[in-house]
Amino acid sequence: MVRAALAFTAVASFGSAVGRTLVDDKHSVYEPSLLLNELCQKIASSISDASDVYDAASVNYLEDISHWGVSSTQLAACSFEPGTPEDVGIALRILGETQTPFAVKGGGHTANPGFSSTTGVQIAMSRFCDVDYNPATQTVTFGAGLVWDDVYAALEPYEVNVVGGRVTGVGVAGFTLGGGYSWLTNQHGLTIDTVQAYELVMPNGTAINVTETSSPDIFFALKGGLNNFGIVTRFTLKTFSQGQIWGGVIFYPPTSLDEITKATANFVARNKDPKAAMITSYNYLAGVPEPTVIIFYDAPNMPDEIFDEFLAIPALNQGIGVSTRSYFDFVKCILIPPPRRIIFDSFSTTDYSLPFLERIVEEANSMAIDTLLNTTTFLNYDVEPFLPTLYTHNKTPSAYPPDRTRGFMPFEIYFAWELPVFDQVVQDAIRGTKETLQKYAIANGQSDANLAVYPNYAIFDTPLDKMYGANLPRLREIKKAVDPENVMGLAGGFRF
Ligand SMILES: Cc1cc2nc3c(=O)[nH]c(=O)nc-3n(C[C@H](O)[C@H](O)[C@H](O)COP(=O)(O)OP(=O)(O)OC[C@H]3O[C@@H](n4cnc5c(N)ncnc54)[C@H](O)[C@@H]3O)c2cc1C
Ligand SMILES: *[C@@H]1O[C@H](CO)[C@@H](O)[C@H](O)[C@H]1NC(C)=O
Ligand SMILES: *[C@@H]1O[C@H](CO)[C@@H](O)[C@H](O)[C@H]1NC(C)=O
Ligand SMILES: *[C@@H]1O[C@H](CO)[C@@H](O)[C@H](O)[C@H]1NC(C)=O
């Protein structure tokens, strides 16, 4: 999804089309049914002063229902901003008893419609915004309403960091509950590998702290199992010391596709240094290639050789963009302007050989022309290489990935468009392009049907066994024990 900003003409033309219409629904003021209205009133009169319920006329409501992509937003009957785990519990009990649909939103970055939005009660976690660093235990506890930028900003003065998001603005909650691929993953694993505790409001309304020793089953299930087991209010993560880093975003002209592809294949084949990470984004705006590469090295100085090939390719922002800076500054410069309608899809690979990358470019080029006719504004094929050792940093099992015995990498595809009438066409197109490339990768020994798909990149109807594999029966057992009434089934998302 890396569509880095600063970009030139591209951002101007794409950005102007963005507008900030919150939803594509024709109603200007949403009027919920009487029943839902009463339900919202009931929550409002049951909660403490730390929390509030808002109707469609309020500014808070608009903020609470809004998402990064408009296609992930729905008009809720009301929004609820809980300020304490107890109030989350009160609401969950009322919602469960009345069988009212609801949604939980962290940073609102899911591309899947209905996963963190609803026409029932929108729970927005924004009041859980504390960041509490504990130097003695080298951990940090932070609220589920934050974006990673907030956590990085709070930790920077202590020269420590967490394994979190790679670009600006992404929510901590969905990211962490789904897995979490970071610039630091080659060194420390996924975000879930660094979680020490979750503060969880169980579906029956009781709040508990979940650790590996206190509730091993729920701890396992929350590591990749998203919103199936309750509502998380706070995360406690391990911290790592963090100095200045070297890196940045490089924008290339359309004519550099071949050179970038060769440089990427060479990086994947040669890099052994866990401090080095990169993303090659094959972006297309209105059919025109806008390749972008982000390079990262976890030390103040440019590493020997690893990135030389990328630096030698003439760039549009030659000489600027890549520098020594703080980790937070680096993430802040990777700004992806919010598009309108969006969809992601993904499969996993064990390698990125030159022929495979060339096949990706060939496919992306042809899709860019094909979908142009159907008003798809923006296409992104993201190559996110990791070392084969990325899953060895933690030995305890987690819901995702179901198999840690071999290294694999999520390959992510992201399309953005303007008009709701094209939703189906574009969703079919992204499935088609994924299948084409997955077939190629499997036929050429770089993927197989058993490699788990990353839940946070997977399209909404991805079968659960494709993401959770052999863990699925255990996850279903835990789900039954934690949520016998299936309260969380009233919220959208991948359902166990
Ligand atoms: C621009 C962009 C960059 C990204 N970069 C990366 C990346 O570098 N690495 C990576 O791994 N992924 C990345 N992603 C994917 C990202 O992990 C998902 O989009 C994730 O859903 C974002 O979390 P959120 O809190 O913003 O989402 P939301 O839309 O708020 O929530 C997503 C899901 O989590 C559930 N949820 C949210 N809060 C809670 C809670 N408190 N308790 C229980 N369930 C909850 C929601 O119900 C929903 O099902 C990126 C996505 C985008 C759009
Ligand atoms: C919710 O479930 C937990 C664990 O099963 C239990 O300890 C707790 O008492 C339950 N809470 C309520 C309100 O029933
Ligand atoms: C979880 O632990 C923290 C720190 O010990 C504590 O402040 C908090 O109240 C606990 N939450 C619950 C729900 O027990
Ligand atoms: C574009 O639209 C045409 C006509 O509706 C359709 O036949 C074609 O499959 C679409 N192509 C893509 C890539 O969506």
From TrEMBL:
Signal peptide: 1-19
Keywords, alphabetical: FAD, Flavoprotein, Oxidoreductase, Signal
Source organism of this protein record: Boletus reticuloceps
Protein's UniProt name: FAD dependent oxidoreductase
Origin superkingdom: Eukaryota
InterPro entries on file: BBE, FAD-bd_PCMH, FAD-bd_PCMH-like_sf, FAD-bd_PCMH_sub1, FAD-bd_PCMH_sub2, FAD-linked_Oxidoreductase, Oxid_FAD_bind_N
Molecular function GO terms recorded: FAD binding; oxidoreductase activity
Domain FAD-binding PCMH-type positions: 72-242
Protein family (similarity comment): Belongs to the oxygen-dependent FAD-linked oxidoreductase family.
Gene3D superfamilies membership: 3.30.465.10, 3.40.462.20, Uridine Diphospho-n-acetylenolpyruvylglucosamine Reductase, domain 2
